[in-house]
Write a structure and sequence with these properties.
The chain is mainly alpha-helical. The chain has a single domain, classed as Orthogonal Bundle (ABC transporter involved in vitamin B12 uptake, BtuC). It is 72% helix and 3% strand. The protein has eleven helices and two strands; from the N terminus they run ααααββααααααα. It has a two-stranded antiparallel ribbon with strand order 1-2. The longest helix has 31 residues.
Length: 294
């Protein structure tokens, strides 16, 4: 029983971080209706930014968010404005322009290979004041970095919901996500909204990067690992659904954590895909997706 409970705790903690990473992707899709294949590479950029902020400035990873998160916001803002917006304008009559997939795939390869040329292929790890530290709750062992990542997920998710629900820009983002043409007729600059939404989605990856570096290796293709997980989680939870992204992340985390106690990682990955396909077979829109959106 203790082993199972430990697996549930570990799976929930790491799954919440997966969910936070997927949250940025689901926000981008929910608003702009484009699939960002460079999302994992944005996480990689965030992890490297956090790594070097800690390494060069000697600050705590969570304090590095003050630098990394705004930097990733502007990175995402400019990527949307310079790279993606021209495609959206060229296909303004298309709800989900497929050419963006090609564009973001190109950004993915560029970011990964430029990082590889600059920093090399070696895996980097950094020791912080919380690396390897734990809380003990009876017989349970709780990783401090993963627990703080769980807290970060809750804080960021609540802040995002508050922003979307109560601020003028948040309401504009929601309006553009529901009907871009009607939003434009109401005086909303849809492309500025898209830039900000993309920037927020990318900034969330900065939070994830800072949460990961105390216990996860940094290397040029680390984004590929999380990219696949994020897409599974977003589709599993429902495209554009914030609760779906978080719950989907926890589901994947629990499968990985519980499965690792009884089988190899290969079989664990297989179970993730089986659950993913089973959910889509029963609910094609995902757990919290809306059929009206499809």
């Amino acid at each position: 029983m203790d082993t199972i409970l430990q697996g549930i705790v570990n799976g929930t903690l790491i799954g919440s971080i997966y969910g936070l990473a997927a949250l940025g992707l689901t926000l981008i899709f929910g608003v702009i209706k484009v699939i960002n294949f460079a999302h994992g590479s944005c996480l990689m950029v965030g992890m490297y930014a956090a790594y070097w902020a800690v390494k060069l400035l000697g600050i705590h990873p969570y304090l590095a968010m003050v630098i990394v998160v705004p930097a990733l916001f502007f990175f995402g803002y400019l990527m949307q404005d310079i790279v993606i917006k021209p495609v959206l304008k060229a296909q303004s009559d298309v709800r989900e322009p497929t050419e963006v997939i090609i564009v973001t795939t190109g950004v993915w390869y560029i970011l990964d290979n430029v990082t590889l040329m600059i920093f090399g292929a070696e895996y980097r790890v950094i020791q912080t004041s919380i690396s390897g530290k734990i809380f003990e709750l009876g017989d349970l062992i709780i990783s401090k970095p993963k627990f703080y990542g769980f807290i970060a997920t809750i804080v960021v998710s609540l802040a995002l919901v508050w922003f979307l629900k109560y601020t003028k820009m948040g309401k504009s983002i929601r309006a553009a996500s529901l009907d871009r043409e009607a939003a434009s007729l109401m005086g909303i600059n849809q492309y500025r909204v898209y830039n900000i939404a993309f920037g927020i989605g990318t900034a969330i990856m900065g939070v994830v990067g800072c949460a990961l570096i105390p216990f996860y290796y940094v290397f040029p293709t680390v984004g590929v690992i999380f990219d696949v997980k994020c897409f599974i989680i977003v589709v599993l939870g429902g495209l554009g659904s914030i609760p779906g992204a978080l719950i989907g992340g926890v589901i994947v985390g629990l499968i990985e954590s519980m499965g690792a106690q009884f089988m190899t990682s290969t079989w664990t990955e297989l179970i993730v895909y089986v659950v993913f396909l089973a959910v889509l077979f029963v609910k094609p829109a995902g757990l919290f997706g809306s059929k009206l959106d499809w």
